Amino acid sequence: MPKLPFGDIGPCEIEYDYGGSPITLAPFLGKVSLKQTDTIYGVQEEAFGDADVDGVMGGPKVELDVPMTRSTLFQLELVLHGVLTPPVLTMRGMVGCDMYAHAKAMAIKPVCDNVASIIPAEWIILYKTYPFRKWTLDFDRSTQRVFLIGFKVFISQEIGTYGDFGTFGTVV
Q1: Among the residues of 19-72, which ranges form H helices?
Q2: What's the number of domains the chain is made of?
Q3: At residue 1, does pLDDT exceed 70?
């Protein structure tokens, strides 16, 4: 019976800055969600009104949502673009900063029995990712706090991976 190389169901662990100075992002509460959406521009003719007679691919957009919970301040410093002077994490504003130049590779590894896969063929590799903040912290008697962090996935402009976002499976 066929199945996806990274499994059909289950949690994952994320290794940010894969191939560099990796930082493990885990645990999560809720689904880690990798999504790609193609932009399509409609070609129209007056005789058909708003109905498209053709379409032109405008390119894909890829993002990853990561619901981090029970995180360390070190992990949060990375994804919140903060400054950590233990025991204080200072949140800072960011405006006008290029993201691609600071983007890092990421490995998404399936987890089985609380252990991340050590089989590279089961991993998803994203070549250039950069975190952005999209969290809301809830304070009540029954909601666990989660930092929802988005990762913008850029198309690679590097030699050897030019024009690619990443791979399903890899070789080490």
Answers
A1: none
A2: 1
A3: no
